[in-house]
Amino acid sequence: MTNPYKAVIGWGRSMYNWVLNWANTRYGTPALAILSFAESSFFPIPPDVLLIALGAERPKRSYFYALVCSIASVLGGILGYMIGSFLWYTATGEYSGLAQAFFHYIPGVTVDKFEHVKDLFEEWNFWVVFTAGFTPIPYKLITISAGVADINFLVFVIASAVGRSARFFLVGTLFFFYGAPIKHWIDKYFEILSIAFLVLLFGGFLIIKYVL
After folding, report:
1. CA–CA separation, 58 and 66 (whole Å)
2. What pTM was computed for the model?
């Protein structure tokens, strides 16, 4: 019988090596931009894994990759804001089909949790967006709820740009200066890092479910 743990790690290793090959093709940067854009409004997987893979393969382009990630993520966040502003409710004030699909699709995000996050914007609008942009908290929840709460659009864009850039440029800086050693370290401790990534990925949803 196949060991599920080894199967997951093996799959992760294959995906990581596959993504590394993108760094030397014309598809790496567009893929990073698309993933960053989508993650800010509807896609569940964060772009960090691709950013790390590209930075590990080509450390001197790490800042460029971080910039692409930041710009695309902010633009995706604007899409999320627009979804919240214009597509979240029906004409009668009920949740739209899109909103109901969101609650079904995103783990740990219920109507009550969403309304609670929306209420947080009344007092902490900038800091809510910034915190979600920098931490594993699902950013799409914040971008959409910001639009629903109708927070100041300029404040939203600035907070998104600061939070997302801080997160991605931190990764870019590490690989720019320590790319080769970090790549070696990733190869050596890949199994542990795979588990850590899954913990962070699901940790953001757990924060929404149990903390907020």
Report:
1. 12
2. 0.75
